[in-house]
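Figure caption, in words: inputs first, then the predicted bound structure.
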Amino acid sequence: MTNLYGCDVEALRGFLARYDLPAFHASQIYAWLYARRRFDPADWSDLPASLRERLQCDAVFDPGKIVARTTATDGTIKYGISPDGGGTIEAVYMHYDDRVTLCVSSQVGCALDCDFCLTGKMGFVRHLSPGEILGQVAQIQNDRGLGERPFNLVFMGMGEPLHNYDAVLAAFRVLVDPRGFGLSRKRITVSTSGLVPAIEQLAAEPRRPRLAVSLNATTDETRERIMPINRKYPLARLLEACREYTTTTGERITFEYVLLDGVNVADDDLERLAEMTRSLAVKVNLIPFNPVPDRLPYRPPSRQRVLQIRDELLRRDVPASIRWSRGTEARAACGQLATEATR
Ligand code: SAH
Ligand code: SF4
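Bound structure (S-adenosyl-L-homocysteine present):
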């Protein structure tokens, strides 16, 4: 049976019409799925009972199931979610004093094989559908009892979101739809390893999430070593695409920069990083590497050096901040997401 979770109003209308059901109920169903997040037609009290029964027989509305929860001491929760299409993906709930941030996956595994990333070591398994992306959000909202409370959403879980462009954008449209999840566009960030054509495509969208680019190095030599995608889209091309993006959209980009001791944190790197960002509308987010002992041959710099790097950048007028990792001991931090089955 077709899983209709993830369908927009148009697709729901099409389904109802095909089954000779009254298509004008599509927007009510849509509201139950995404605004109210109730997945069983039996609960949809404003629909005629006959329609609810038909829907229960003819369709499924499956956002995926939470199969595991790991809570870290800082309250970060890593969820294992089993999506309708199979496999296990991971999504993370982070609670700060003033806000909640959810981090979701866009693929099972990742094709881009960055050398410092555990998801990359899994290889690519498959793309997630829009419903499998939205299902992670809805299930965590329900599980945490977030109700109508707004939250930030980052596509920084497993996978490269811009490699799964159409599904991610379809999910984005439901997320920002006031009749859907009703999130502000500015609360959603897509992080990419630097797929230049997709960055160009995103700039041309009528509505788009915020963009973060994983820069992670300041020379092609180093970037190629840790991020094979750099062979296809080297730094000069990536930076040009970023410049185009900021001028076309009038929006700032975030450069993510994973700090790898002995690899990309020398004084020369900071000099080049400052140079690269000088005339660009960007801010830099420094991410101390989250070690995965025995699996990844890298270490973060000392805490003192991390602070020094930020201060050096600030001194050069680069807007820089540090993203101290959350959920490290639950392996819920950046680059630590890979499901047990594949380990
Ligand atoms: N594929 C996308 C989004 C997922 S990765 C991308 O690469 O941007 C999200 C962020 O985590 C990226 O900035 C990536 O560089 C970073 N990351 C990956 N592995 C990490 C690790 N072990 N420690 C710290 N950051 C890591
Ligand atoms: Fe994929 Fe991002 Fe990990 Fe690179 S860092 S392997 S692009 S998930």
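The chain has two domains: 2-60, 65-342.
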